[in-house]
C-alpha cells in the first residue's frame, strides 16, 4: 500500500495506523500523545495570539521549500509579526485519494522539522481524504497559538507618525516568482528560490534592539504593496517608497518584466516589513542585517505628511506614482 | 458578481470586500475586528483545550444542517467532551472558483448563528480560492480553543472499572445515514435527518449532575463501535453492549439493513457516549433526559471483568459477538 486510500480518512483502523506510524513519528510530543478529542495544554501566562491559514499551493514541492514547511512558516510568521512568541500549532490535512504515501511522509517530515526549528509543538491534527479529483494532491490548514507576556513588546500602530521609516527585511517577490517559474505551463528554467522561512528569531533580534517598532507585517498574498496599502488605510497615514531602495533580485525583476508583473505585488513567505521611529531605524536595521534572514534589509521609504492616505512610490526615473490595492488575480494558489 | 472568483482569494481588493461585507456581517466581534495577522485575545485563566477539524462533507446542505453548522458543532463537541468550555474558534475556507456567493452567505450565516448559540467567538479566519475542479464546492477547517478552569470537571479515564455504565445520549447513526440518503446516486426519498448539534449545554447539565463521569466522547467518523473500541484499547478494559438497549431509529435501521451497513459504525454529529460509575449512572441519565439533546439517552452496556480488552455486544438473539475496529470506507466525506 503506497498510496492514500479513502479508508485512511475513515476514522477506523487505517486512520489510526497513519496517525501512529507516520504522524507520531515526526510530530512526537507529550501533548499530542494524549490522543484525545481535544489536547489539553498548560495555562498560558499572558495574552494569547491566534491565527489560521490554509495552504493550497501548487506545486507542493518547490525550490526553497514545500507545502509542509510553508504551512508552518506562514502561521509562525503571522504570530511573530504580532509580537507573539509562537507556542503551539494544529495541522489538518485534506488529501486526495491516490496521493503517494512517500510524498506525504516528506511533507510530514518537513512540518516536523520546521516546527522543531521554530520551537512550536504540534498539539492537534486531523486527516480527511477526498475522492480523486476533489482536491489537488494535498491541502493543509495550520492554526497557531502564541503568547504575549505582560512585559513583551506589542506593536503600537497608533503611534505611527511622519518621518517613521519603512524597513523591509530583504529582497521581495522571490516566493511568488519562484512558484510561477515552476508551474508546468511556464516551463521556465530558473534558479529563483522561494524565500519560505520562519521569521520568529529575526523578530526577537529586532525587538531586542528597539521597543520602537510600531508595526510588523509579513507581505504574503498581495505582496509588499498590498501590505503597506492596508497599513495606510488602517492608520490613515500616507507613505512614500523609494523604488531604487527596494531590494529585488535581478532574476525576479527579469521574470516579472517578461510577464508584465510588478514584483511589489508578488507574494513573499520569508520577509517582513516594519515601521520604526526615525531615531531607532538604524539600530533596527543593524540588528536585522546581523541575522541571516535580514542580511539584505533596507530602509525603503517613510511616513509622510499628506492628508490623502496614499501609498506613493518615487520611481527610479524620478516620477511619483500612487500604488493602489491589488485587484484581480494573476495566478491562484501561490500559498 | 454572484460567484466566487479566483480574485476573492488573492489577498487584494476583492478578498477585503468579501471579508468586510460578508464575514464581518455574520462573525462580528471585537477580537476579529482587530484585523491583524493574528488576533490577540485576553488571558485564559485555566488549562487550555485545543482541537482542529476539517469538514469536506458532501452534500454541503443536508436535512438537519449544513457544512457551516457542522463545522462549528464538530469542533465545539470535541472541546466539550474533553471537559472544556468552548471559547474561541477559527474558521478557514477553501472555496472552488464558481461557487455561488449566495450559498457562501448561507454557510457563513449558519456558522455565525451556531457560534452565537454555543457562545464562542470566531477570532480568526482565512479564505483560499482554488481553480474549478480542484475542490468540491467548499471545505472548511475550524480550530477550537476552550478552557478548563482549576475546579472544573476533568475526565478521569484511569478510574474506569468493572460495573461502570455506558450511556449514549440518543439514537445513533442518524447523521451518516441521512447524508447517504441525500447523495445523488442513492436517490432515496427519506426523512432521516442529521443529528448535527452542539452538545456543550447538555454536557454542562451532565457535569452538574455528577463528578463521576469518567470519559465522554462524540462518536463521529467510525460511529459508536469505533469510539468505544478506542476506549477499550486505550484503557485495556473490556465492555459489553446490549443491542436491544441501543436506540436506533427504524428508518435508520431499515436503510442500513438495505445497504448491509451496521449502524454501530455510522457517524453521529450530535451524540455523545460516556462512561459513568454504576452509583451515579441513573443521576446522569436523568439529567441527560431532561435536556432536549439527551431525551432518548439510554444505558447501553457496562465495563466488565475480562482480560481480553474486547468490545462485546449481546445481540437481540442472545448471542455475544466481538466488535472490531472498523476498516475500509463505505462512503467518504460524511463529515
Helices and strands, with pairings:
The structure is a homodimer of 335-residue chains.
Chain A: H1 13-27, E1 39-41, E2 47-55, E3 61-62, E4 65-66, H2 67-80, E5 85-96, H3 101-118, E6 121-130, E7 138-148, E8 165-168, H4 174-181, H5 200-209, E9 213-217, H6 223-235, E10 238-242, H7 250-259, E11 273-276, H8 278-290, E12 298-304, E13 311-314, E14 320-323
Helix pairs in contact in A: 1-3, 2-3, 5-8
Domain PurM-like C-terminal (chains A, B): 161-307
InterPro entries (chains A, B): HypE, PurM-like_C_dom, PurM-like_C_sf, PurM-like_N, PurM-like_N_sf
Pfam family, one (chains A, B): AIRS
Note down, in words, how this protein is organized.
The structure is a homodimer of 335-residue chains. In chain A, the strands form 3 sheets. Chain A has a 7-stranded mixed beta sheet with strand order 9-11-8-12-10-13-14. Chain A has a 4-stranded mixed beta sheet with strand order 2-7-5-6, covered by helices on one side. Chain A has a two-stranded antiparallel ribbon with strand order 3-4. Helix content of chain A is 30%, strand content 24%. Chain A is an alpha+beta fold and 335 residues long. Chain A is globular. In chain A, helix 1 runs parallel beside helix 3 and helix 2 packs parallel to helix 3. Chains A and B meet through helix 1, strand 1, strand 2, helix 2 and strand 5 of A and helix 1, strand 1, strand 2, helix 2 and strand 5 of B. Chains A, B: It comes from Romboutsia maritimum. Chains A, B: Belongs to the HypE family. Chains A, B: This is Hydrogenase expression/formation protein HypE.
